[in-house]
Amino acid sequence: MVSPPHALVIPYPAQGHVIPLLEVAHALADRGFTVTFVNTEFNHARVVAAGAGLEDGGRIRFVAVPDGMAPGEDRNQLVRLTMLMEEFMAPRVEELVLASGEGGGAGGKITCMVTDYNVGSWALQVARRTGIRSAAVWPASTAVMATLLSFNKLIEDKIIDPEDVDYDIGARNNRVLAHPAVACFVSHCGWNSTMEGVRNGVPFIAWPYFADQFVNQVYISDVWKIGLKAVADKSGVITKEHIAGLLAELKGDAGMRERVEALKKAAHESIQSGGSSHGNFDTFAEGMKKA
C-alpha cells in the first residue's frame, strides 16, 4: 500500500502568518496529505490551547521546536527572533525530516515542505539537504510581494528614497464578520483581516498601522472602493466622531454595498470546485505529491 504524501508546514511565528499557513495545512489535508505543522514552542502552546486544527478531527499533527528565545523574552523583537530561528529551529526541523517514518512513526516519511517565505532560506536549504520537494508561501498580497521584488529597481528609478524606508520583517474574525448585525469592519488592514472582510461581504473603515497594511488600505479604499480610510485630525487623533461619520457614510452608500457584494461573490466562486483559486491549489498540491 502506497503511503499518502506527507507535508511539513512551517509558518513564521506570528499570528498573521500562523493563521494562513494553518489554512494551507487544512487545504492539503483535504487533498489527501498527511500534515505535520511545526510551530515554535511558544506559539505551539497557544495554538493547541485554542483548539486549532482539532475541529476537523485532529487531521493535523502539531510539533513544537525551540525558537532560541527565553520564555519571558519579547518576541516582538522580530529581527532577533528571525536570526535565532535559523540557529535553533533549522537543526530540529532537519532532524524531524530525517527521523520521519522510522519505526512506523506518525504519518510516515515526510515527502515535502511548505514554508512561509518570511521564515528565511534555511527552511528551503533543509529541504534540499534532505531531498524533499519544497515550496515557499507568501502570506500577504501580491502587490506587496511585487514591490519587494522590485525594490532595487524602485530605488534606482528614485521612486523610493532608501533613507526614508522603515524596514520591517514582517482570533479568527470570520464568525464575528459573518454575523448579520455587523455593519462594517474597523480594521488595521492586515492581509488576513482584509481577506476575511472580503469573504464575508463587510465594508471597511481602514485604519492601517504598519508594513503592508498601508498598501492593503489603498486597495480597500481607492482600488476596490469597498471601504473608507480613517484620517487623523490636526492633533494626530482619529476621533470617535470621525469614526461615527464614516460609519454613517458607509451605511448610506448603496454603490459601496454593491461593490462589497460583488467582491464577496467573486471570492466565494474562486474557492469553490471549478473556481480559479481552487484549481490553482489543486495544481500546487499535485505538484507537491511528485517525488
Report the biggest beta sheet as strand number plus sense, adding barrel if it closes: 5 strands, parallel
| CATH third-level topology of the largest domain | Rossmann fold
Global morphology: globular
Distance between the termini: 16 Å
- Radius of gyration (CA) equals 21 Å
The counted number of beta strands is 8
Indicate the CATH architecture of the largest domain: 3-Layer(aba) Sandwich
How is the quaternary structure best described? single chain
User: How many DSSP H or I helices?
Assistant: 12
Q: Report the mean per-residue pLDDT as an integer.
A: 82
- Strand coverage percent: 5-15%
Q: What is the CATH superfamily label of the largest domain?
A: Glycogen Phosphorylase B
Order of helices and strands: EHEHEHEHEHHHEHEHEHHH
CATH C-level label of the largest domain: Alpha Beta
Stretches where pLDDT is under 50 for at least 5 consecutive residues are none
Overall number of structural domains: 2
